[in-house]
Amino acid sequence: MKKDIKKVVLAYSGGLDTSIILKWLQDEYDCEVVTFTADIGQGEELEPARKKALSLGVKEENIFIKDLKDEFVKDYVFPMFRANAIYEGEYLLGTSIARPLITKALVEIANLTKADAISHGATGKGNDQVRFELGALALNPNLKIIAPWREWDLNSREKLLAYAQKHGIDISKKSGKSPYSMDANLLHISYEGLILEDPAAKPEDDMWRWVSDLKNTPNESETIELEFNKGDLSAINGEKSSPAQLLAKLNELGAKHGIGRLDIVENRYVGMKSRGCYETPGGSILLKAHRAIESITLDREAAHLKDELMPKYASLIYNGYWFSPERLMLQALIDESQKYVNGKVKLELFKGNIMVIGRESANDSLFSEAYCTFEEDEVYNQKDAAGFIRLNALRFIIAGKNGRKF
Known about the structure:
This protein is an alpha/beta fold. Helix content is about 40%, strand content about 20%. The chain contains 13 helices and 14 strands.
């Protein structure tokens, strides 16, 4: 395959690993390298990646840095939250949902630059290799994919550092850089490796970068109001702004009150279990609020069907099937359910807790005080319940008369 690769687009962070990959691609494939760096709210300055790529021989016109924050939230995070998606009951899919967007941009740049292949820095043990490659092959099946971690023999930190030194790649550590394997974007920060490889070990206190320790959170609660339009967050405390700005504001509020830390062991798609720690402050608030507004606007059976389908939908995202017929089918169903999910939710934030204290929808609420009141009413005949119960018990009655025991 190597002789067929003339140009490759690399998902490039500017860090040590992807800088080594950049040089390795140039040497092993003797090809032109195009770099792509995505800003999805990871909170790092991205211009140093441009300088690093230039220093490694990449042409100026072959360096792409894109701000994708609003697209990330509007077209990926929000659609996922319409489904209330959680993987294995806890994980809010912060890394998983970012991969299809990065893949889409990689493929678009490959098409634009007439590249033969794309390349990524995911290892052969993780989920990201699956997510990147399934997405790329769905979007452009003619592209080749180069996964250096599955090809090279640089399978230890010592070998990587030796390769970097040999080729003059800067190995100095960024100030404040975490020793953990991290992934950050507007939705979350994840941590893996080191002490976390022992599922019995408590994470070190200084590992957490975003969410305040409960001991340091305010001693007074804070009430906020979120407004939804067709299932998507549209305003916080009456202020409308862009999708990215709204999520950033929720992150700020959640982090302040110690909301969104998570320590789990999850099942990777490739078969092994993995322990990860996550910070998802804004997403945790958004999920709680979205379910609250759905509670008064969604039909009962529609809501229950959504809950039945959600684990499948979440697994599709976790396993890398964002660009698949089945995810698109489920998304169409989910989006149809959100037409009437409009209204406002009041929440109280305090010491890691999110408490729903009110919800209202001016035009789309299915909550009827006339029917559910404990006081006297003129719309509901309580005698109707007797026939309803007896019809639902009819199979029990017939079976019991035939001697069946339950």
